[in-house]
Amino acid sequence: MSKVEDFLSKEEEQEIVEAIRLAEENTSGEIRVHIEKTSSKAHFDRALEVFHELGMDETSLQNGVLFYFAVDDKNFVICGDKGINDLVDDNFWDSTKDIMATQFRSGNFKQGIVDGILSAGQQLKKYFPWSAGDTNELSNEISKG
Asked: Contact at 8 Å (CB) between 51 and 64?
């Protein structure tokens, strides 16, 4: 098995999908998680590429957030679309990464991802509250490359 499959158990993956569902419950925002082994590109550039490949730049309010992980590289990136980036504090994504990294350093990868998702969900809820007629525009499932 590759490190992508070893990174999280099926149960942990389901807990992450559930965290996405909970985070999106009160917002029109969209959250995705993408995991791959490595990237030959700069991680931020690769995360932006995945962001576009997953159609995250096509949400109606430009409020998608991608959590990108390159497992072998021990690197991760959080990408927010223009709608959310224009509204959150400048240090928001860095503070979210710090919350996650604290868990990662202890080997708690699933919990770090869940904490990051829930943190992003709070910001999305603040700026993009759920309203009648909102639909889930993107899958909550973890994508893998």
From this structure: yes
Amino acid at the residue 6: D
**In whole angstroms, what is the distance from residue 63 CA to residue 76 CA?**
20
Instruction: Give the helix, strand, coil percentages of the chain, each rounded to 5.
Output: 50, 15, 35
Average pLDDT, integer, range 66-75: 96
- DSSP string across 40-102: SS-HHHHHHHHHHHTTGGGSTTS-EEEEEEETTTTEEEEEE-HHHHTTS-TTHHHHHHHHHHH
What is residue 1's predicted lDDT score, i.e. its pLDDT?
39
How far is 141 from 32, CA to CA, in rounded Å? Answer: 7
Q: Which amino acid is at 45?
A: D
Residue 113 has pLDDT above 60, yes or no: yes
Residue 132 has a pLDDT of: 80
- CB-CB contact of 8 with 16 (8 Å): yes
Q: Which helix (H) or strand (E) holds 125?
A: helix 109-127
User: Amino acid identity of 35?
Assistant: I
Q: What is the dihedral of CA 20, 22, 28, 32, to 10 degrees?
A: 0
